[in-house]
Amino acid sequence: xxxxxxxxxxxxxxxxxxxxxxxxxxxxxxxxxxxxxxxxxxxxxxxxxxxxxxxxxxxxxxxxxxxxxxxxxxxxxxxxxxxxxxxxxxxxxxxxxxxxxxxxxxxxxxxxxxxxxxxxxxxxxxxxxxxxxxxxxxxxxxxxxxxxxxxxxxxxxxxxxxxxxxxxxxxxxxxxxxxxxxxxxxxxxxxxxxxxxxxxxxxxxxxxxxxxxxxxxxxxx
Length: 221
Description:
Blueprint: H1 4-26, H2 33-40, H3 44-50, H4 54-82, H5 88-98, H6 102-113, H7 118-141, H8 154-175, H9 180-191
């Protein structure tokens, strides 16, 4: 039989799962405490015992949502690392794959909402910093040749890829352009390709031997 502490933990988890589902299915504008409580199978009074305000519920939901995304990254990146060979192209493909998950689009809505919601922004800021740190850590654990990153560090490559693909995700939401991710990944691969200076130097060309010239006889034309 579950203890009271276990029941509280389970109820809180149900509310966070319900809030995440509401955010994914209906969007930030439509999420209400009533809808979350109904989806969790709990009363609104029970919800407010765990989260005294909607802002606190959304802040906790953001942390829960990014935790789910982190576990998704870890599963995908871990599976790739266990195979042993990870190229920069495949690593960027993995990132693009994860950033097309519906939960990530829900997270983008929280990004946007935080622009005008100071409470949400203050709660979201440390979550986003931890999330960026997690992405860099996961990328560093992949067996990617450091030379493959080219002119920038691996951490910078991860940040650049994440920000570029975030933009591609927003673009896709706005205009339904399904090729944006492919174009962004292809451009990032080109940008992070090794520079000529990082490639093995070509052997210098062998000097051509010059044939001795026969001097013209004096007075000859």
